[in-house]
Specification:
It is an enzyme of class 2 (transferase). Its EC number is 2.7.11.1. Keywords: ATP-binding, Kinase, Nucleotide-binding, Serine/threonine-protein kinase, Transferase. By secondary structure, the protein is α+β, with helices and mostly antiparallel strands. It folds into two domains: 5-84, Phosphorylase Kinase, domain 1, CATH 3.30.200.20; 90-306, Transferase(Phosphotransferase) domain 1 (Transferase(Phosphotransferase), domain 1). It is built from eleven helices and ten strands. The protein has a six-stranded antiparallel β-sheet with strand order 1-2-3-4-6-5, with helices on one face. A two-stranded antiparallel ribbon has the order 7-10. The relative contact order is 0.12.
């Protein structure tokens, strides 16, 4: 295979990931030697996501936790999005360590709230909060290829050296805006109504979905934060009680997870975990559909582990 250049300036080096949306490659700028990531999907994809993702990223750009778009356009049969190259996602890190230290989780979770606050302030609701979409800094001490050893059917023993997590501060970023949408109606300037026509398929990832989303309500700001509560719980516990649910189809799987989320007491879910994390999830569940979250209050709950161990 010969050298492939995207957007006239970005030389593709190797494939580093793939998903239902398409593929991700590492590339380098031919002149500046700056590293970047390139996402691509077929132009004739039935439900293309990259044009919308590029649009949202440009709306959100500015803070360092939003990847910068360097170029977006068409290359032969593909839509291609050139953006900042980042480090491993939080799913890979959590799998390698099993449970993550409370101090690390608190720091990362506070940053996650700030990112979602920025997204919400632009009138956007993210709709797919999960560990896969939160990425650490590009120079994270453990290489992605090393972490991928735990992303297999026969993983090694969990890592026990927490120095890469605790010896320095970390920066988290949010990627993959293909499922994001506006919660503010552009015509009226108001929050989208709670009552919407029923849809056959739910948006997002069932494991982390908010109870309101399970019940068929449109995504709202509160749901992004509730989903974050489940992400935090998984980082602290190493797993979620409903992670191993089996079902004949997606509808049955979503229904089983809903019953568990609704029926397991929070005290049981967060047993052995500082109370602030449980209070965070409870707070998100108590928010009204169109209520603006108090992001400072949410951050304070996640920082309070120091005082209520």
């Amino acid at each position: 295979m010969g050298k492939v250049t995207v957007g006239g300036h970005w030389l593709v080096e190797e494939k580093i990931g793939e998903g239902s949306f398409g593929e991700v490659f590492r590339a380098v700028h031919v002149k500046t030697k700056e590293k970047c990531a390139i996402k691509r999907e077929l132009i004739n994809e039935e439900h293309p996501q990259l044009p919308q993702e590029a649009e949202f990223l440009r709306m959100l750009e500015g803070p360092r936790f939003i990847p910068k778009v360097h170029w977006f356009g068409q290359e032969k049969l593909y839509n291609a999005l050139v953006m900042d190259l980042l480090g491993p996602n939080m799913r890979l890190v959590r799998q390698a360590y099993d449970k993550l230290p409370v101090a690390f989780v608190s720091d990362i979770a506070i940053q996650m709230v700030t990112i979602l606050e920025h997204v919400h302030n632009k009138g956007i609701v993210y709709r797919d909060v999960k560990p896969d979409n939160f990425l650490l800094e590009q120079d994270f001490e453990i290489p992605i290829k090393e972490l991928e050893k735990w992303d297999s059917d026969d993983p090694p023993k969990p890592l026990e050296d927490y120095h890469p997590l605790l010896d320095r501060s970390h920066k988290i970023s949010l990627v993959d805006y293909g499922l994001s949408t506006f919660y503010i109606d552009k015509r009226t300037g108001r929050h989208v109504p709670k009552k919407q026509p029923p849809t056959k398929y739910k948006t997002g990832t069932a494991r982390y979905a908010a109870i309101g989303v399970h019940n068929g309500l449109p995504h709202a700001r509160r749901d992004d934060l509730e989903s974050l509560g489940y992400v935090i719980l998984e980082m602290l516990r190493g797993t979620l009680p409903w992670a191993g649910v089996t079902a004949r189809n997606a509808i049955e799987g979503w229904a089983k997870m809903l019953r568990m989320k609704a029926n397991i007491p929070l005290e049981e879910l967060f047993e052995g975990v500082p109370r602030g994390f449980m209070d965070f999830l409870q707070y998100t569940r108590n928010l009204d559909f169109d209520q603006e979250p108090n992001y400072n209050y949410a951050r304070n709950l996640l920082a309070s582990y120091v005082f209520n161990l």
